[in-house]
């Protein structure tokens, strides 16, 4: 069997808008989240190179903050995209060495992926050109209105008494438009692994707009994508509540003392 040479791309150019602050520098057991994510791959025999794509408008600060520990692992830092995720991956793909046989793209904010899952995905990628992890959707899914609506205050007297403060008491929500059939639906995770030539073809397409993951671009080529079982611990940290969850999963306590954003 031909040796597998995996190059890992970790997009880290996002602004963390939904999180509200720099999430990749959050403390996980004394190390920044980004480093924990990189370290998922550093001891894998299949992984020969790692590329991290940082924020283009603040790349020097990113290098100052993470450059030394990433360099210790032989990681190459490149400039990511400014608007869409696919721009970041496309920039990093240009830095993948020519000897690579496969590319694995993994979210920078998924530090909890088990080595067992990575191993299963890599093994599947030896036989299939595109492999992604996914979890069957268990919750009922509903499509809701784009705009939020505000419930009217039933008690007009409260408006008179509270004035502007009454606005805070008015519940906001979105109206259900339809219930979505969840049959055979999966919530997709990373790492997503592809034969390097296939991924390059996917990113060579003229219109990449609207792509939220790399498998979606492969699907546009009409190529099959294999889904293997993901895992609940493979959580993507998106909001602050997720940080507490991933610390619990990994067995880390929240840091004490110096503010987290000044630790790394």
For the biggest sheet, the summary is: 8 strands, mixed
- And the CATH topology of the largest domain? Spore Coat Polysaccharide Biosynthesis Protein SpsA, Chain A
CATH class category label of the largest domain: Alpha Beta
Question: Uncertain spans, ≥5 residues at pLDDT below 50?
Answer: none
Query: β content, as a range?
Result: 15-25%
What is the architecture of the largest domain at the second tier of CATH? Alpha-Beta Complex
Q: Please, how many helices? A: 8
Radius of gyration: 21 Å
What is the number of independent domains?
2
Which structural category do the helix and sheet elements fall into?
alpha/beta
What features would you describe in this structure?
The protein folds into 2 domains: 6-130 and 229-262, Spore Coat Polysaccharide Biosynthesis Protein SpsA, Chain A (Alpha-Beta Complex), CATH 3.90.550.10; 141-180, no CATH class. It is globular and about 75 Å long. Helix content is 28%, strand content 22%. α2 (59-72) links the parallel β4 and β5 (76-79). α6 (196-203) packs across α7 (214-220). The strands form 4 sheets. Strands 1, 4, 5, 6, 7, 12, 13 and 14 form an 8-stranded mixed beta sheet that branches. A two-stranded antiparallel sheet has the order 2-3. It contains 8 helices and 14 strands. It is α/β, with parallel strands linked by helices. The longest helix has 14 residues, at 59-72.
């Amino acid at each position: 069997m031909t040796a597998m040479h995996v190059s890992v791309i970790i997009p880290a150019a996002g602004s963390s808008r939904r999180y509200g602050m720099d999430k990749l520098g959050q403390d996980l057991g004394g190390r920044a989240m980004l480093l924990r994510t990189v370290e998922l791959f550093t001891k894998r025999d299949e992984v020969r190179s790692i590329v991290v794509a940082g924020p283009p408008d603040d790349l020097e600060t990113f290098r100052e903050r993470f450059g030394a520990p990433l360099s210790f692992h032989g990681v190459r830092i490149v400039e990511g995209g400014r608007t869409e995720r696919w721009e970041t991956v496309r920039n990093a793909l240009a830095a993948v060495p020519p000897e690579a046989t496969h590319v694995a793209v993994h979210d920078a904010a998924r530090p909890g992926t088990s080595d067992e899952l990575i191993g299963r995905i890599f093994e599947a990628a030896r036989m299939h050109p595109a492999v992604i992890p996914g979890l069957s959707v268990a919750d009922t899914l509903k499509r809701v209105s784009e705009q939020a609506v505000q419930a009217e205050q039933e008690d007009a007297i409260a408006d008179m008494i509270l004035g502007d403060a009454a606005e805070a008491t008015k519940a906001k929500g979105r109206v259900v438009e339809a219930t979505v059939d969840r049959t055979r639906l999966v919530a997709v995770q990373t790492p997503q692994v592809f034969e390097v030539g296939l991924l390059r073809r996917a990113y060579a397409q003229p219109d990449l707009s609207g792509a939220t993951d790399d498998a979606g671009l492969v699907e546009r080529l009409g190529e099959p994508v294999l889904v293997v079982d993901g895992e609940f611990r493979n959580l993507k940290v998106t909001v602050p509540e997720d940080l507490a969850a991933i610390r619990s999963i990994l067995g880390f306590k929240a840091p004490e003392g110096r503010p987290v954003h000044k630790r790394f």
